[in-house]
């Protein structure tokens, strides 16, 4: 397995949607569909017939599935940006374009399963990505970096062979810094305490190590939720809206379930109804969850604005 390229990713694979059931979609009426564009580059056009192969490829190379329509200029722009970045990143991920008019069954299946128009697929597991309609190119690139980190943490580090960039000329990924490798290995063996200690040591050596900050925040979230009964915690939060600990636990669970906006909403509501030390505790937790998700995520930027409004 190749070395991972960063700390524990802000986009966790746990809680992802299994696309195994979509690997062999029912053929559309009117006979078989021609195959999409040949999978020789970083961008392929998906049909009902070719989607199974795209999902299979996610075991060796990260895949980004994007739904688009020629009648929707915004979706076309998003797909063009993703295609440009797929080439710019030299095939480090495969962009699978799904034109909804030409592959309606795939589009409907992916959309209904993930609840998103763009999703990352790693080992057949789909992680919905936030809406990219208003995202800048830099924000999309930052989100793709998180996708690649998530894929690497799950052992998927292959590249798509490009006609103008032979695989033999692709430079090897640099190894992780020792403290990050130590943390990664600890996470792999489910020793979260050791992982947290490794990230803390990395921060002691370099307080500006943003990847260590994100890794530590992710590990702390995993530690807080490891022994929590989700049903009981949700019931407790619903029964006692004023119980701060219950609301903090609920926000953690929402984020672990990839319900990012819901997690932020829980804590923003708590900020608005608390004062003094309690409000500060909520603010600190919310900022920590921002770190887990990633500052480039549009949902984080929106929540930061809402937090500033609530505080001032």
From TrEMBL:
<dbReference type="InterPro" id="IPR036249">
    <property type="entry name" value="Thioredoxin-like_sf"/>
</dbReference>
<dbReference type="InterPro" id="IPR011990">
    <property type="entry name" value="TPR-like_helical_dom_sf"/>
</dbReference>
<protein>
    <submittedName>
        <fullName>Co-chaperone YbbN</fullName>
    </submittedName>
</protein>
<dbReference type="Pfam" id="PF14561">
    <property type="entry name" value="TPR_20"/>
</dbReference>
